[in-house]
Amino acid sequence: MKLIPAILSSTLLLLVGCSSPASEVRYYQLVAQTPPAIDTRVQQPLVLAPIKVASYLNGSGLVLQQSAVEFSIARQHLWADALEQQLQRQLTEYLLLALPKQPLAAFNAIGARTLQLEIDRFYASESGQAIVSGRYNISGAVLDSTVPFSYQVALANDGYPAMVQALSLGWQQLLQELVAALAVTHSSVE
């Protein structure tokens, strides 16, 4: 007789556990900002190579650095688009708006400069900093320079939305640096 209430209570607990709502999956997108247009005489075409992102960053989950050697990848806080795609789209849009006289070219364009971008870090640290770092290379007929970059932006609040906002600010700082570098490298080859 005592076995029936135990079985019923176990079954009831199992049913309640299965019917409770699962944690909600949330999707995030980087914030895009509209840059001011720079009036340049840039006419030399520019090829944008596909952005390379470190493999541990290129999944769907946002990445959080737990310690110097430990990272966690979120399962319920995901990028709305693949990170590489978001970065490539925003880079293209930003350059078209910031450098309206800078034509973008196909990969096999003769005489074009090439911009290659590699992202090694794109995450938040346990200390409350969003970190964006890597290197970019601008190459052309007479020029080839590789430049490392590293940006740290403090998170305004706790949580994934604040993390994405801070990562967006770090990314925007890099975009501004790239526009300035492209304008300088063009004027140095004229």
From TrEMBL:
Gene3D superfamilies found in the cross-reference section: ABC-type transport auxiliary lipoprotein component
Top-level lineage group: Bacteria
Signal peptide start-end: 1-24
Keyword tags: Signal
Domain ABC-type transport auxiliary lipoprotein component: 28-178
Identification of the protein by name: ABC-type transport auxiliary lipoprotein component domain-containing protein
Annotated source species: Alishewanella longhuensis
